[in-house]
Design brief:
Structural class of chain A: alpha+beta
Number of strands of chain B: 14
Number of helices of chain A: 5
Oligomer: heterodimer
Order of helices and strands of chain A: EEHEEEHHHH
Number of strands of chain A: 5
Strand content of chain A: 15-25%
Shape of chain A: globular
Number of helices of chain B: 11
Largest sheet of chain B: 5 strands, antiparallel
Distance between the termini of chain B: 48 Å
CATH class of the largest domain in chain A: Alpha Beta
CATH architecture of the largest domain in chain B: 2-Layer Sandwich
Low-confidence stretches of chain A: none
Mean pLDDT of chain A: 97
Strand content of chain B: 25-35%
Largest interface: A-B, 32 and 28 residues
CATH architecture of the largest domain in chain A: Roll
CATH topology of the largest domain in chain A: Ubiquitin-like (UB roll)
Largest sheet of chain A: 5 strands, mixed
Structural class of chain B: alpha+beta
Bound molecules: flavin-adenine dinucleotide, FE2/S2 (inorganic) cluster
Mean pLDDT of chain B: 97
Shape of chain B: globular
CATH superfamily of the largest domain in chain A: Beta-grasp domain
CATH class of the largest domain in chain B: Alpha Beta
Strand order of the largest sheet of chain A: 2-1-5-3-4
């Protein structure tokens, strides 16, 4: 193995991946260009917009601010991993039902961040939703419909 | 936005990390949560030839209590500190400070040790760590040492850490029952960092201020203890007038930062206003 390259093993959305990567490869580029999972977006590339959010070992992270080598051994969930058996995840359904998106560019990151939010706080207030999604920018919706979508999902997930 | 090439190591023990640091000297940098270093590397403001990722080093994560002291591992994330029951019960100002940092994703990755070592003049932790009079445990090839937080911050982005040393623990004495704390911050709207952040740790006896410590970040190149404020209030009644008069001294003798976000005059005023409000918050 080339000395400067590193082998990494990850589980992404339940599937095992093994690749040799350059240490400077960002996780978001690994996901998109090496693993072929383009649902995770690159927005600002400067750690601010949250479009690149994925869940790594249970934590929502900005994958443009993480090296792929840091994720060696990790379990990763991306937007592609949320729907099960062709059924939208309740958060995805919320975005659909409550018009939580317009252009859709921020949506994968927004949904993944909302996933973390509802896991930590299954019944959030409007303020808590806005605070929990502070790391995700949307240039289209004005956020109100995103809040509505998360509330829809919270209700649905609590049955 | 691609970093320069580097060689990557992921040691699993402190000794292994120290050996790598000694071997690679100034070419090497420690990587913790990466939320200051990776952005700097992407902009090529930092181009280390070697990265030593300490995330997998055993024993540097989590919070425990021992003999009235909270022992916080350097790799403990902002989120872990924000949500820890132990921290919320024993030293709530730590959890409060953690909750003010960045956003959820940043708090999930960034570490207290990384923030202190990086010593960004607008970082939040320094204010609170100074006000709590924390001790910092550092290990290097020459062995172990403990340094007071008040001796740790030296210059802009510069601390007492030597190039071959690692910050391993933050020690915070659990304050007495009659001690309260408050951290108050004005967020710079774009970055979320502190335009001004004031941490107050106050011990009261009735209405009298027995003891007060005030740590301030964002205002100067180096975070500082506002000792003029402290001595103006210690032993006095916590009346609105006394608090306001003491807070007026928040920027006394301090070299105040000026940049595109805030002029010197504005920052100095912010320091006073936020100090007054943080003391009022801790006193109420
Ligand atoms: C979008 C965004 C918003 C942010 N907002 C805020 C904010 O509002 N307030 C705030 O305070 N911070 C903020 N931060 C910074 C964040 O808190 C960082 O996590 C923190 O400053 C650095 O911690 P880290 O673990 O990520 O360190 P790293 O980035 O891994 O390292 C930072 C530096 O410290 C050194 N280092 C790290 N750990 C150690 C150690 N144990 N011993 C010796 N040297 C070490 C590294 O070599 C490097 O030079 C923000 C960051 C981002 C990306
Ligand atoms: S692309 Fe990662 S935060 Fe914007
Ligand atoms: S829907 Fe367009 S950025 Fe959010």
């Amino acid at each position: 193995m080339n000395k400067s390259r590193k082998q990494i093993n990850t589980t992404i959305n339940g599937e095992d991946y093994t690749h040799e990567v350059e240490p400077r490869l960002l996780l978001v580029h690994y996901l998109r260009e090496v693993a072929g999972l383009t649902g995770t977006h690159v927005g600002c590339e400067t750690s601010l917009c949250g479009a690149c959010t994925a869940i790594v070992d249970g934590q929502a992270v900005k994958t443009c601010t993480m090296l792929a080598v840091q994720a060696d051994g990790a379990e990763i969930t991306t937007i592609e991993g949320l729907a099960q058996d062709g059924e939208l995840h309740p958060i995805q359904e919320g975005f659909w039902e409550r018009h939580g998106l317009q252009c859709g560019f921020c949506t994968p990151g927004m949904i993944v961040a909302a996933h973390q939010l509802l896991e930590r706080n299954p019944n959030p207030s409007e303020d808590e939703i806005r605070h929990g999604l502070e790391g995700n920018f949307c240039r289209c919706t004005g956020y109100q419909h995103i809040v509505d979508a998360v509330q829809y999902a919270a209700e649905k997930m609590q049955g | 936005m691609i970093a320069s090439s580097f060689e990557y190591f992921a040691p699993t023990s402190v000794d292994e990390a120290l050996a790598l640091l000694s071997e690679h000297g100034d070419d090497a940098k420690i990587l913790a949560g990466g939320h200051s270093l990776i952005p700097a590397m992407k902009l090529r403001l930092a181009e280390p030839a070697v990265l030593i990722d300490i995330q997998r080093v055993e024993g540097l994560k989590g919070v425990s209590e021992s003999d009235g002291t909270l022992v916080i591992g350097a790799l403990t994330t902002h989120h872990e500190l924000e949500s820890s029951n132990l921290v919320n019960q024993k030293v709530p100002i730590l959890a409060q400070t953690a909750g003010e940092i960045g956003d959820v994703q940043v708090r999930n990755k960034g570490t207290i040790g990384g923030s202190l070592s990086h010593a960004d003049p607008a970082a939040d932790w320094p204010a609170t760590i100074l006000a709590l009079d924390a001790d910092l445990k550092i290990v290097g090839s020459g062995g172990e040492r403990v340094i007071k937080a008040t001796d740790f911050f030296e210059e802009l982005y510069t601390t007492a850490l030597e190039a071959d040393e690692i910050l391993t623990e933050v020690h915070v004495a659990v304050p007495a029952e009659n001690t309260t704390g408050s951290y108050l911050k004005l967020h710079q709207v774009a970055s979320g960092f502190a335009l001004t952040g004031v941490a107050v740790v106050l011990t009261k006896s009735g209405d009298i201020c027995e003891n007060i410590a005030v740590g301030i970040t964002g205002v100067s190149d180096v975070p500082y203890r506002a000792s003029e404020v402290e001595s103006a209030l210690a032993g006095r009644a916590l009346t609105a007038d006394n608090i306001a008069a003491a807070a007026e001294k928040a920027a006394d003798g301090v070299d105040i930062l000026e940049d595109i976000h805030a002029s010197e005059a504005y920052r100095s005023n912010l320091a006073k206003v936020y100090t007054r409000r943080a003391i009022e918050g801790a006193a109420s």
